[in-house]
Amino acid sequence: MKKIMITGACGQIGSELVEKLRVEYGTENVLATDIRKPVSSSGPFEVLDVMDAERMYDIANAFGADTLMHMAALLSATAEKDPVFAWNLNMGGLMNALETARKLNLQFFTPSSIGAFGPSTPKDNTPQDTLQRPTTMYGVNKVAGELLCDYYYTHFGVDTRGVRFPGLISNVTPPGGGTTDYAVDIYYQAVEKGHYTSYIAEGTYMDMMYMPDALQAIVDLMEADSDTLVHRNAFNITAMSFTPEQIAASIQKVMPNFTMDYDVDPARQAIADSWPNSLDDSAAKAEWGFKAAYDLDKMTVDMLEKLRRKLYRTAS
Ligand code: AKB
């Protein structure tokens, strides 16, 4: 039976991951932790600042965890505003989590990102193994994190695993401080205002994925037979790649009156321009059977339906 501890459990991925894992493995077997207390919690919860190595170890030990999923991190746009803090939090938190995993012999997951690539990386069908010279602090953190996880596997035998997530789109917890967040905002604004002003320029391709596919990918990778994994910590995965005008066109199939214009944010556009247009995820498919269920139009239909229900319920 798995006993899973999650850091950053109130964040965009963490909040939904906790619920999914509680369904899969039982509520009492999934311990959520975060620096802030949630308004309500469906199971065990502890307040944890990931910079506090001793408390992280103590909580994992007392819970009897056999798995640690380290999700706490600053995203790309926020990291760029305070790079020193981003380095300290993203790398310090990861180091504390890896040390906890090493000392307690835990299986370990932490996400990398398309942000681990840079302008010199091949942009189309970006290979699994390729040039990684990112120009953002977030990217520097992600590359260092991938290498650190490899190191803990090769030197200490910690069962580290991870994926390079594209932009994640969800109707539950909004993201905070990412470059790909426009692809979430657009659905909220479509439902609330029928119009969206994009901070990402026309023609900018980025990889994306609907949250249910991202959560399933985590479960599948963690359940995969260790012997089949060659890359372990940094699998390219993707479900779709689109531009702002393509996601707008997808929304217009459901809401013909939806309109979009542009007010490009140079800071986030520069980050987007440094990232791939589309990833090659053949290694993830071959090594642990990764498969995404949602393409752009299927995701759009589901997002708009769920958001209409959610926003209507909130308003009433
Ligand atoms: C971000 O935009 O920073 C994240 C990511 C792609 O890692 N969504």
TrEMBL record:
Coiled coil: none annotated. One of its GO terms (molecular function) is L-threonine 3-dehydrogenase activity. Residues 4-237 form the NAD-dependent epimerase/dehydratase domain. InterPro entries: Epimerase_deHydtase, NAD(P)-bd_dom_sf, NAD(P)_epim/dehydratase. One of its GO terms (biological process) is L-threonine catabolic process. PANTHER family: L-THREONINE 3-DEHYDROGENASE, L-THREONINE 3-DEHYDROGENASE, MITOCHONDRIAL. Belongs to the NAD(P)-dependent epimerase/dehydratase family. This is UDP-glucose 4-epimerase. It comes from Candidatus Kurthia intestinigallinarum.
